[in-house]
């Protein structure tokens, strides 16, 4: 349980990091919080020749506010973002999702960008990024680009960040105070990876008619997915019990879960339906100021 | 390739200068190089919590950090809890209420409780359970652990009061 030998480099800027990536190419691996990478290295499932530690790059940490969005530095620690007033006031669903990541000790060290770029299909931040239509700012040798969450998560542990690039920022929108939201998760114990995670944003009018529903699921496909059929079904409908139930059923049509030792595919699908209904109910209660 | 690197760090108030290969985990630096055997290496992949320490004032799993990353850091291990031979109130509560059986996870339990009670001095039992859930006890003595942390919270409140 000891990692293989590697060369350790700790650049002080993004430019320097990209220079090192260009020099060492696929021999190099970037380390941020290390809460997923170091276990892989300890098991020798990952054995990078060169480890590029970006923890010293201060410009990658912190949360900024712009008119209609928040910009989160990729190296911002999960607990720092969870406790941020900017996030509490403007995008509370993001903080709620973070609170379900591992345990507090993991969140002290784990980073927002690291969890997103790792692309674990059961992880919380990819799920909440999808429901928020977050955008990822990536810098590489050719300059920078902004990628929408829907194009960012390619498959298991594979993001749209190319080998010579680095994720530097995550942009999330501010939510309107009247919108309902929820982040619910089914796991065996608190802190475990989600069997199913569901994020919901609901926009309703004064007559309880749904203007827009956004539903994102994790743990039930190779990447976090949007329940598009359920979303379009709910638009324009009164959010009563029957319609929420129908949306739960429809949500299972957009997912393709696999079996593993945590749960069978069948169980995941069945729980996805239950959790979508739960998430919708919770989000609906928030639109009414119940929570 | 992976030649030793010089690091300077402070552990429990003592400054150390060491030369370490990059692949050395922080927990192994503490145990093998600094001979601070209080921190226990359990699962060595961040699941069990036995190796929890304070890194610049916040808990971290010392099996999920490389020693080279601790260059310039302030670290506190379980050896830093007691002062002048007197147990810290959290340690005293674990002692009084049998918050340990074999003791292997105890350093992780104590350091986790230390951070938790600093942030939340009068927690509910539910909050305590959630906060301590990240440290595994294979003797399954969780009841006494929770009782000990709650008892310590009370002791520390009184000391302050």
What would you call the shape of chain A? globular
Question: What is the total number of structural domains of chain A?
Answer: 3
Count of helix runs of chain A: 12
Overall body shape of chain B: globular
CATH architecture of the largest domain in chain A: 2-Layer Sandwich
Number of domains of chain B: 2
Count of DSSP strands of chain A: 14
Q: If you consult CATH, what is the topology of the largest domain in chain A?
A: Uridine Diphospho-n-acetylenolpyruvylglucosamine Reductase, domain 3
Task: Please identify the oligomeric state.
Answer: heterodimer
Order of helices and strands of chain B: EEHEEEHHHH
Structural class of chain A: alpha+beta
Summarize the structure.
The complex is a heterodimer of chains A (291) and B (161). Chain A is of the alpha+beta class. In chain A, 35% of the residues lie in helices and 24% in strands.
Descriptive report:
The complex is a heterodimer of chains A (291) and B (161). With 291 residues, chain A is α+β, with helices and mostly antiparallel strands. Helix content of chain A is 35%, strand content 24%. Chain A has helices at residues 14-24, 37-42, 78-82, 85-90, 92-99, 104-109, 112-118, 124-132, 149-152, 228-234, 241-251, 265-287, and strands at 7-9, 28-31, 50-53, 63-65, 69-73, 135-140, 143-148, 153-155, 158-159, 166-173, 180-186, 196-204, 210-218, 225-226. In chain A, strands 4-5-10-6-7 form a 5-stranded antiparallel sheet. In chain A, strands 11-12-13-14 form a 4-stranded antiparallel sheet, sandwiched between helices. A 3-stranded parallel sheet of chain A has the order 1-3-2, with helices on one face. Chain A starts with 6 loop residues before the first strand and ends with a helix. In chain A, 51% of the residues are buried. Chain B contains 5 helices and 5 strands. In chain B, helix 4 (125-132) crosses helix 5.
């Amino acid at each position: 349980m000891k990692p293989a030998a590697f060369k350790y480099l700790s650049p002080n800027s993004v430019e320097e990091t990209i220079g090192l990536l260009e020099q060492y190419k696929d021999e190099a691996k970037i380390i941020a919080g290390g809460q997923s990478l170091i276990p892989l290295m300890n098991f020798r499932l990952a054995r990078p020749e060169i480890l590029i530690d970006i923890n010293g790059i201060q410009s990658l940490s912190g949360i900024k506010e712009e008119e209609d969005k928040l910009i989160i530095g990729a190296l911002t620690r999960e607990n720092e973002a969870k406790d941020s007033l900017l996030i509490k006031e403007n995008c509370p669903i993001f903080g709620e999702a973070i609170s379900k990541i591992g345990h507090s000790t993991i969140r002290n060290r784990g980073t927002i960008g690291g969890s997103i770029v790792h692309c674990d299909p059961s992880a919380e931040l990819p799920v909440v990024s999808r429901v928020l239509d977050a955008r990822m700012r990536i810098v590489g040798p050719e300059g920078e680009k902004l990628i929408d969450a829907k194009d960012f998560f390619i498959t298991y542990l594979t993001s749209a960040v190319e080998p010579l690039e680095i994720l530097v920022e995550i942009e999330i929108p501010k939510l309107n105070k009247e919108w309902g939201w929820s982040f619910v998760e089914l796991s065996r114990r608190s802190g475990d990876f989600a069997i199913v995670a569901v994020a919901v944003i609901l926009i309703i009018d004064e007559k309880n008619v749904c203007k827009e529903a956004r539903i994102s699921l994790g743990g039930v496909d190779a990447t976090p997915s949007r329940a598009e059929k359920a979303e379009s079904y709910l638009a324009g409908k009164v959010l009563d019990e029957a319609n929420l139930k129908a949306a739960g059923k429809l949500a299972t049509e957009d997912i393709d879960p696999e079996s593993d030792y945590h749960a069978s595919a069948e169980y995941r699908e069945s729980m996805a339906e239950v959790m979508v209904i739960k998430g919708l109910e919770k989000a609906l209660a928030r639109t009414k100021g119940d929570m | 390739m992976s030649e030793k690197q010089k690091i300077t760090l402070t552990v429990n108030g003592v400054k150390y200068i060491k030369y370490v290969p990059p692949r050395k985990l922080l927990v192994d630096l503490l145990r093998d190089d600094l001979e601070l055997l209080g921190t226990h290496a359990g699962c060595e992949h961040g699941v069990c919590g036995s190796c929890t320490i304070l890194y610049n004032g916040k808990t971290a799993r010392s099996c999920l950090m490389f020693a080279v990353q601790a260059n310039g850091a302030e670290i506190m291990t379980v050896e830093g809890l007691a002062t002048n031979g007197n147990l810290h109130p959290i340690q005293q509560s674990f002692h009084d209420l049998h918050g340990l059986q074999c003791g292997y996870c105890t350093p992780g339990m104590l350091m986790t409780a230390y951070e938790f009670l600093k942030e939340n001095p009068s927690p509910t039992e539910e909050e305590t359970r959630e906060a301590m859930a990240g440290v595994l006890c294979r003797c399954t003595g969780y009841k006494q652990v929770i009782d000990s942390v709650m008892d310590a919270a009370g002791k520390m409140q009184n000391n302050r009061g």
